[in-house]
Amino acid sequence: MLYAFKISARYLTANKGQTVLLVTGVAVGVFIFIFMSALIGGLAEFILSRTVGDLSHITIAAESDDPAILVTADGHMLVVTERGQTRTATLAEAATWLPLIAAVPGVKAVSPQINGAGFLTRGGQVSQVSVTGVEPGRESAILDLESYMIEGSARLGSGLIVLGTDLADDLALSLGQTLRLQSSQGVSAALTLSGIFETGNGGMDGARAFVSLSTARTLFAMPQGVTQIEIKLDDLNMADATARHIVSLTGLDAVPWTDGAEQLMEALNAQAQTGYFLKTFALITIVIGVASALLLSTYRRRPEIGIMRAMGAGRGFVVFVFVTQGALVGLMGGLMGASLGYLALLPFPSRDAFRAGTLPMDITQGSYGLAITLTVIGAIFASILPARAAANVDPVTAIGQ
Amino acid sequence: MTALLDVKDLVKTFGTGDVATQVLRGLSLDLAKGEMAALLGPSGSGKSTLLTILGTLMKPTSGRYHMLGQDLIAAQDKELTAFRNLHIGFVFQFHNLLPDFTALENVIFPTAVREGRESPAARARGRDLLVRMGLQERIDFPSTKLSGGQKQRVAVARALMNSPELVLADEPTGNLDRASAMQVMELIAQINREEGTTFLISTHDEKIANLCRRQLMVGDGVLTG
Question: N or C: which end of chain A has fewer CB within 10 A?
């Protein structure tokens, strides 16, 4: 078969112009395949990082206490609820679970939090806010608060508060100024504005306040425990499995981000399907291109095939010559397309540096090996028809040409 | 002399029904090892068809064809291909060299295709044959750059590469000038004498035919003399 390989290579080098065109055609197909892989993969990364990146990948929230039920003497049930929504459910033993959760494989950060509602007042102005109390030093564990700071510091401490830029503008606040925060528990505290952030998310920038966990304990009258634990993972795609692991480990109600994100997942799946279609079309184009070029070559070389058959070359030998040609074209085009694809993707920012306004191309998701392998397989598949046609050439008729 | 091939009542019909044309009409022939025979006859008499059948490139409609004791009509394509490679050489009117190969590569093709590689032994024999054909200066020349006579001598060398018992030559000098034609025929005669290779040469040229020890006349699909 070494000799058949030599003949295949000779046929390809004998018509350099035609071979270069054919290989270039295949390379363009592979380039499109790689470009689409990097774009679709990068886009998915970008969307996820923008929508989920700053959110908790797994959240363990305290379960609300069920209302008390009293059974009267006549068998009627009385449900006893508290007036208003002032009672806050707590994870009383959070401190026990935190080291255990932090040791779960794939967990990047754990942030115990106390969340609640409150009112910010300064002078005659009042704004409703969502208050999050986090441990000092873990301000950027889930939401990368530090990276969004436009003024001051994200560092929280006793008597300090960090606000979104819209909220600060609404209250005409600047760094170092004091304001009053009254919690839904009716506790109020005077706090100093130590930082202003801007995430670009209106809800966050206009109605979110961060305080230290100790401040939140005072505000929400919660001397121990937390209202929720937020967990960040190394790979957000592992959220479902890691959440199940945490549930089995702690018995707590760990909810992955994918719960309630069905629409996002559907959109990402639809996007991935689009990518598969485009890549399939690129492959089909390669197969058709190789098949048509080799069919032409077979037709042009009919007399030679006839001579080879007359000299004792079997049908298998002829098939091998043309299939090898297809494989070589696929391999060369695959390598060329993959190299061009890699070079074309180099100028794009890496996945960690995706920014709005740029194409989120992820060079690591180019599927280079897959592209080359599928192209070689496709080219071999494409060459089978021409190869069989070549093997069936009647030597008498062919030599007569 | 020992019998090489034996053909009996060979019939070949092309087409069917009203357009059926019978080219061979019960032709019988035997050739002994070491013979050098000329096949004469007008155009359309069936010379080329006979050579094609003897070369196992085409099957007859009916009849019997044995060579080296083997029934070549019953044999399958794979067996015929192997048989042809080992025992039969071809020289065509238009040389039919592989255009993308050198003279040497063309000559060693029949051995290389059998062995699956261009062995040093095959290359050595190919060189010897080309030297014998007077082409020592053209061994590594691209076949397309050779003259007509040179191409035909390369074709003769290729036909002899596997030391076949039979070489079938269809108008081997038909496309050459007189000097080249005589040169090729002298080489064929020399190989026939020295190696005992059997040659069956189809020709219109009586001078060429006279160089052969036996002349066979084909007419109307049968041997007439």
Answer: C
User: Phi, psi at residue B149, to the nearest 5°?
Assistant: -65, -40
- Where does the pLDDT of residue A85 fall: very low under 50, low under 70, confident under 90, or very high at 90 and above? very low
Pair of tokens at residue A104: 């779960």
Q: Is the ipTM of this complex over 0.90?
A: no
Q: Out of B52, B85, B101, name the one closest to residue A312 (CB).
A: B85
Is A205 within 8 Å of A199 (Cβ atoms)? yes
User: Considering only CA atoms, which of A353, A388, A350, A375 is closest in space to residue A38?
Assistant: A350
Asked if the Cβ–Cβ distance from B117 to A303 is below 8 Å, we say no
- The band of A208, judged by pLDDT with boundaries at 50, 70 and 90, is very high
Give me the residues paired with residue A211 across strands: A133, A161
Point out the residue among B57, B78, B114 whose CB comes nearest to the CB of A395. B57
Rounded mean pLDDT, A296-304: 83
For residue A324, the chain B residues in CB contact (below 8 A) are none
Within 8 A by CB and 6+ apart from A262, the residues are: none
Does position B96 have pLDDT exceeding 60, yes or no?
Answer: yes
- What is the secondary structure of A18-41 as a DSSP string? HHHHHHHHHHHHHHHHHHHHHHHH
pLDDT, residue A241, reads 92
Do residue B55 and residue A310 have CB atoms under 8 angstroms apart?
yes
Q: Which residues contact B55 (CB under 8 A, 6 or more apart)?
A: A310, B84, B88, B90, B168
pLDDT above 50 for A131: yes
Supply the pLDDT for residue A84. 46
pTM of the predicted model over 0.80? no
User: Which residues in chain A have their CB less than 8 angstroms from residue B58's CB?
Assistant: 396
Q: Residue A119: in which H helix or E strand, if any? A: strand A107-122
**Minimal Cα distance from B82: which residue of A?**
A312
pLDDT digits (tens, 9 = 90+) for A223-274: 888 999 999 988 878 889 999 999 998 888 889 988 877 888 888 888 888 8
Residues of A in contact with B86 (CB under 8 A): 312
Tokens representing A100 are 């255990």
Of B85, B98, B113, the CB nearest to A3: B113
Mean pLDDT of A192-219: 90
Distance between start and end Cα atoms, chain A: 28
> Could you tell me which of B184, B180, B193 has the C-alpha nearest to residue B157?
B184
| Closest by Cβ to B96, choosing from A2, A11, A307 | A307
pLDDT range class, residue A357, cuts 50, 70, 90: low
Residue of A nearest to B51 (CA): A396
